[in-house]
Amino acid sequence: MRRLLDFLDDRLGLVNVWRSSMSEKRPPAGIGWLRTIGYAALTVCVIQFLSGVALALHYVPSADLAYDSIRAFEADVPWGGFVRGLHHYGASLFVVLVVAHMIRVFFTGAYKAPREFTWLTGLGLLGVVLAFGFTGYLLPWDQKAFFATKVGTDIAGKAPIVGAAVREALNGGAEVGPPTLTRFYVIHVVLLPLAFVGLLAAHMFLIQRHGVAAPGRPVGDEGTPGEPYFPHHVLKEAIVGIAVAGLLFALAAAAPAPLEALAEPSDTSYQPRPDWYFLAAFELLKWFKGPFETVGTFWLPNLFVVGLVLLPFVDRGPERHWRKRPKTTALGVTTLLALAALTTAGALDEPDNPPTLPYPLGCNHAEKQGYLTLRRLRCTDCHEWTIDGATYGAERFDAPPFEEFLADYGPEEFFEVLDDPEGTLGTEDMPAFDYLSADERQALWRFLVRMRGGK
Ligand code: HEC
Prior knowledge:
By secondary structure, the protein is an all-alpha fold. It has two domains: 22-271, Cytochrome Bc1 Complex, Chain C (Up-down Bundle), CATH 1.20.810; 365-451, Cytochrome Bc1 Complex, Chain D, domain 2 (Orthogonal Bundle), CATH 1.10.760. The protein has helices spanning 2-12, 14-23, 37-56, 66-76, 80-107, 116-138, 143-157, 163-171, 178-210, 229-254, 279-287, 293-314, 326-348, 365-376, 402-405, 411-419, 421-425, 438-451; strands spanning 385-387, 390-392. The protein has a two-stranded antiparallel ribbon with strand order 1-2. Helix 5 (80-107) packs antiparallel against helix 6 (116-138) and helix 6 (116-138) packs antiparallel against helix 9. It is elongated, with a radius of gyration of 28 Å. The mean pLDDT is 95. Heme C binds at residues 377-379, 381-383, 396-400, 405, 409, 414, 417, 425, 427, 429-431, 433.
């Protein structure tokens, strides 16, 4: 045993690594629980990776099938709903913890020399986490996903000079559409994980190199060594990691991740909303209109980013304790309050989207096209439809609900009504749909047949 260890150590040098980074490393005394937030974020990161791989094994990255593949994952794969819940809530928790970690670093002045680059790599990681959130939001291809992405890429499109090109590159065309889904998927599962791992490696390397900043001590004073890293700090980090994982598991078990109706691009009445961590930026969009629009969409957000990047190079005073640097502390608190106010304002201004007609899982391509055609033609603007106790659409002009007349029709009569409602029903209230292609009519009919149980 001893000889095997020696043999391995000669080649790999792991004992030295263990000693220098674990058992003999002594971070400065006085390090509290707040220093574990970064590791808590890392725990969520691991859960995101595992749940993401499970989702990716079943997800189909095409506009045609993405939505159904998510529904099938939840309905048919054991623990599918739970795993999607983990990934959904994990994304939010990830952002919360990364931001909390950043706030801790800000108020303890830990970004000061010699740790400027640790701060920069951390900022990069935050950017990647937000990009994960933005690209992942589109993947279920529901209404919420589609229209939030439209707002997001439109915002990118308003940036000066390069905006239009960036928007087109993200969309894979002029508008959000099937190519956008492919691009976001590749960004989400290939490019961002690579960027994340690279930045994380640099971040961890720098933390190893410079150690943890001594709490409350000025720059240059690395404090007195405290408890050894192993087992003292490792234990604390493990406790926080387990607590965070427990919280995430509880969230995923408590409520399923939301999924709205399948995206239908022509649905102009849909009021979009991004995920909560973009609400502050979304709120700015409402404040700055017309010629000042780019103040909200581009200048303010980017000024904020530039401020964060420059922070450790501009704020070069020796003090780290928040009480001894009142200006920076005041700036930080003001910024946080402003962000919290914007986010709250955005959250209170909740859009009121009525429930959209669903379609059953397992519809074939024609039936699904029929479903989308029915939504595009807005039949449920006049004909209500009650399915499984839930009512969709609205009743106008005394139009009968779908479930009432569905069984009465054969295809020929149905097409006659569509072509000429006035001639067949004597009504002027229903518009004629005589311009539909043969495929569209057939698809519409197939969907209705499906909905009345196949006859
Ligand atoms: C602007 C409102 C409006 C829209 C949109 C509309 N309809 Fe109608 N529809 C009506 C009204 C009103 C009637 C009832 C006419 C009557 O019998 O007096 C009707 C009747 C019908 C009927 C006959 C019902 C029966 O009791 O026999 C069918 C079938 C029908 N609609 C199908 C559709 C389909 C399919 C669409 C979408 C492609 C659609 N309608 C869109 C207003 C509308």
